[in-house]
Specification:
- About 40% of the residues lie in helices and about 20% in strands.
- With about 190 residues, the chain is of the alpha+beta class.
- The protein has 2 domains: about 90 residues, no CATH class; about 80 residues, ACT domain (Alpha-Beta Plaits, 2-Layer Sandwich).
- Strands 5-6-4-7 form a 4-stranded antiparallel sheet, with helices on one face. It has a 3-stranded antiparallel sheet with strand order 1-2-3.
- Strand 1 and strand 2 form a beta hairpin.
- Helix 3 crosses helix 5.
- The protein is elongated, with a radius of gyration of 19 Å.
Length: about 190
């Protein structure tokens, strides 16, 4: 994902500001749109805040580079970190964030399979369960399953990385699963 494009847009998709927990989080940033953009980037990528620093795992990140990625001034990043650190509830959230390695792009080079599920309604329970059940019945191991949070992503998806590419007949079965609108296999 090109975060300079995503975060530079004027109308950034933020559905989670309307959910009770996220409303509380956003009330801290509602008067500061640049800080809100920075907070969204931190949440999206699992970037942790500790005192006056931002980390990706154990790697400290530059405020300037984060500012460029979001399309804001460096001072907005500094202010966001200060806002987070001063607020006990925000600090509890942002201190615990962790990035996740997504294997979908490297899977083809490893001779693994990737199935991307487009849901009818991403909030519907059981989509992952029904798709993984079909894969398990074929005795194929799942190496990774990542689900986009429907509150954080405009077009949430379920990505499943398997020990080998799935045969066409399995893709057809998956397409017929409860809650599945479409399937992309690569």
């Amino acid at each position: 994902m090109d975060c300079s494009t995503k975060y530079g847009e004027a109308a950034f998709y933020t559905p989670f500001r309307y959910i009770p927990m996220w409303k509380k989080l956003y009330s801290s940033f509602k008067k500061f749109p640049a800080q809100q953009k920075v907070a969204e980037l931190l949440l999206t990528y699992g970037l942790r805040v500790e005192k006056d620093k931002i980390f990706c795992g154990e790697i400290e990140l530059s405020f300037s580079k984060i500012a460029r990625a979001v399309g804001v001034d460096r001072r907005a990043v500094v202010s966001t970190v200060e806002t987070i650190w001063k607020n006990k509830e925000l600090r509890k959230i942002f201190m615990m964030l962790q990035p996740t390695c997504h294997l979908k792009e490297v899977a083809p080079q490893m001779n693994w399979g990737v199935v991307e599920i487009i849901p009818v309604d991403a909030s519907m329970p059981g989509i992952l369960a029904s798709v993984s059940s079909i894969i398990a019945k074929a005795k194929i191991s799942i190496r990774q399953a990542i689900v986009d949070d429907f509150r954080l992503s405009k077009e949430p998806r379920l990505f499943i990385v398997t020990e080998k590419p799935l045969p066409g007949n399995m893709i057809s079965k998956i397409r017929q699963s409860k809650g599945v609108k479409g399937v992309v296999s690569y």
